[in-house]
Amino acid sequence: MQKKRPKESLILKTDRKPIRVGISVGDINGIGPEVIIKALRNTEILMDCTPIIYGSTKTLSFHKKAINDDLFNYQRVTDATDALDKKVNIVSCWNEVVDIQLGKANETGGKYAFLSLEKATQDLANGKIDVLVTAPISKETIHQAGFKFPGHTEYLADLSGKEDALMMMVSGNLRVALVTSHIPLKQVIEDVTEERILAKIKEFNKSLKKDFGIVRPRIAVLGLNPHAGEKGEMGTEESEVINPAIQKAMDEGIITFGPYPADGFFGSRQYSNFDGVLAMYHDQGLTGFKSLAFEDGVNFTAGLPIVRTSPDHGTAFDIAGKGDANEQSMRSAIYLAVDIYRTRKFIKEINSDPLPKRVIREEKKSKFF
């Protein structure tokens, strides 16, 4: 897919100090460590960031040997504050030798994925790293290890003191966000409410401005039913729920259009006319997105005080350790996290009030503030 610069983007002119990128290894029986190794073995990426991997040198060495890699180099550090620029750094979250069973979905993989994620988020909360990139987890195995959330998005929202976050898929100028994410399809109709849609539109609009530097975002909203309800013949959610939310967003100055029939929206390239697309549920948005951008797509958690990205693929147990995993999505996730961090910093700088603040508002408690 051709990538073009947004028409109304802000051109950033900030210092090029490397951003400290924390990377959780994901399920160690899957392709997470492999795509990390492949994404970081080209030293060019070290000009923009300082990678800090949360895992163990033994685990990374195991995966390095499994794919016969002789290019990936790293150093072990005891703490993220000791990480060196222009080097790949590994913070050991465990010292024991782990029984890695490539391609196997088991509790061991979930246990160490959770340990890696916990340590990385602790360091993020303490300011030891600037952004977080998460390698894929298996929801089944990490739940066996005591992880109590549907996925990374909900986990980070909880740590941030947010009831909800906005799941967004990004590839160049294609940005697809979701009203509902990791819930059963039968629950979607109940959760797709006017209030929720409006809240997601607002969060999407805010993120497009703050995280991507788009001055006047144009947002397309997809319908819920086939043919966007066909004027009530195939459902009334469009007229009774989605349309009112769009109108309220427009009344608040948010440039919003729709609802569009989801089936033809991506195939006809209508998405290219917008800065963001809001889908009603997981597969509605991600099927179109991954058809267009599977290899370099990135999952970005918007609406949080921290920056977190992830490859848009899963653990791929079936190809783990075979050297066949494509690292482009992981590489794109790293670069996007760096870009968003710099964009937020730039936006904050140009909008900062030179006068001292006289009123301090109490926000909901968050580990990331």
Quick description:
By secondary structure, this protein is α/β, with parallel strands linked by helices. Helices cover 35% and strands 16% of the residues.
List the helices and strands and how they pair.
Layout: E1 19-24, H1 32-40, E2 49-55, H2 57-66, E3 75-77, E4 89-92, H3 107-125, E5 131-134, H4 139-144, H5 152-159, E6 166-171, E7 174-178, H6 185-191, H7 194-210, E8 218-222, H8 237-251, E9 255-260, H9 262-265, E10 276-279, H10 282-293, E11 298-302, E12 308-311, H11 328-350
Parallel strand pairs: 1-2, 1-5, 2-4, 3-4, 5-12, 7-10, 8-9, 8-10
Antiparallel strand pairs: 6-7, 6-11, 11-12
Class derived from helix and strand content: alpha/beta
Radius of gyration: 21 Å
What is the beta-strand fraction?
15-25%
Secondary structure: number of strands:
12
In round numbers, the mean pLDDT is: 89
Shape: globular
Strand order of the largest sheet: 3-4-2-1-5-12-11-6-7-10-8-9
Helix proportion of residues, in percent? 25-40%
Order of helices and strands: EHEHEEHEHHEEHHEHEHEHEEH
Q: Total helix count? A: 11
Can you tell me the residue ranges where pLDDT is under 50 for at least 5 consecutive residues? 1-14, 358-364
Give the termini separation: 37 Å
The biggest beta sheet, please?
12 strands, mixed
